[in-house]
Amino acid sequence: SVSGVYRVKTGFTNGAGRCLVSSCKRDDLDIITVVIGADTTKLRTSDTMKLIEYAFNNYEIVNIKEIVERRFEQWKEMNEDRIYVNKGITNRVEVCLSEISVNNMAVKKTEVDKIDIEVNTIFYLDAPVVQGQIVGNVKVMLNNKTIEVLKIYIKNEVRKKDIQDYMLEFLAYLE
Q: Could you give the 3-state DSSP secondary structure of residue 80?
């Protein structure tokens, strides 16, 4: 008996041999194993047990969303002030990240520290800037492979300066 197994289905055909599909859950990790072509029922069972133990010994559930949001906040702290709005009533914008589609993901234990983000954005905008305007993207990477691309968008709108704004600036400069 293997801990966490909650459903099994056996089968046999001349083409596929002895088969076993098993569902197993431990903590947050829920897996399905499939063994086909086993010569005996004993081999079918032992192969299933090996697959289950391999999965639980080598994979863990990781909160990808939390990691991505934390890394993006770190990026924003260092870079958001570098985004410049030309001819706007303000030169600064706030940026946000679109929702990641994956909250938790099974990740090989040896690759947990290989979750990273790559930020690509423009740093110069001409007013007007509209709320929701896309200004870049964030590649969510696992072991240098892209698993999702999120959009970076503008949180606040910045209207273009008009003649009245320039006059007020000029009068403030004279004082």
A: helix
How many Å apart are CA 1 and CA 18, to the nearest integer?
A: 19
Q: Which residues face 57 on adjacent strands?
A: none
pLDDT digits (tens, 9 = 90+) for 107-164: 999 999 999 999 999 999 999 999 999 999 999 999 999 999 999 999 999 999 989 9
- Which tokens sit at 96? 């946000």
| Separation in Å, CA 147 to CA 19, 38, 61, 113 | 32, 34, 15, 15
Q: Are strands 104-108 and 59-63 parallel, antiparallel or unpaired?
A: antiparallel
pTM (two decimals):
0.81
In single-letter form, the type of residue at position 8 comes to V
Helix (H, G, I), strand (E, B) or coil at 113: helix
CA 175, chain centre distance (Å): 51
Give the largest CA-CA distance in the chain.
94
Quote the tokens at residue 61: 């559930």
The token pair at 98 is 């679109």
The type of residue at 172 is A
